[in-house]
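Lecture 7, part B: from sequences to assemblies.

Below are the input chains for today's worked example.
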Amino acid sequence: KAGVTQTPRYLIKTRGQQVTLSCSPISGHRSVSWYQQTPGQGLQFLFEYFSETQRNKGNFPGRFSGRQFSNSRSEMNVSTLELGDSALYLCASSFPGQQETQYFGPGTRLLVL
Amino acid sequence: QKEVEQNSGPLSVPEGAIASLNCTYSDRGSQSFFWYRQYSGKSPELIMSIYSNGDKEDGRFTAQLNKASQYVSLLIRDSQPSDSATYLCAVNIVIIHDKVIFGPGTSLSVIP
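Predicted structure of the full complex, as structure tokens:
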């Protein structure tokens, strides 16, 4: 079974631009969570989607948004990028009933200049 | 109090020793507990999950859960240099719709 995939793997943007990241979960997994990881802040929860609905949301500004499609693929969008948005963005998927065991993708490394 | 806490380390142990990693959590209703390993520049990978009080063993890894003390630990026996990584504890927070929260991680260094 293929693992979680994320595209793109690396991205360089400038301040003020916007970016869209994509995540394809493991086949059969319906829950997708997004995390931001920086050296100083660790793994910070952004949001979780289940069956195309946002189920949980972290404490991030409204510039961070996401959505999930009917095939469980998910995208997250960051508008008006700031230097502090430079981070590794991780997506994790889980299967309903497996008590939230999450499997991570390789991540997208975003650099904002 | 933070929802999930870990000693940040770094924790250094000699090769062949037992490494002990600790985690405490704030939500008494939490039911699911996970340990992930993350190598530098890589994404976290699941090592073990534990749901009941007591010990759970998988190879050189043993997870220990004590819900009364709100404490979960990971023991790594016969530590190897390849075990050098950051270990993340994760807990489901029932009062926040079962959201999984990660601790800050403990950096482990196994010295040959």
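Note for the exam: The first strand of chain B starts at residue 4 and ends at 6. Keep this in mind when comparing with the next example.
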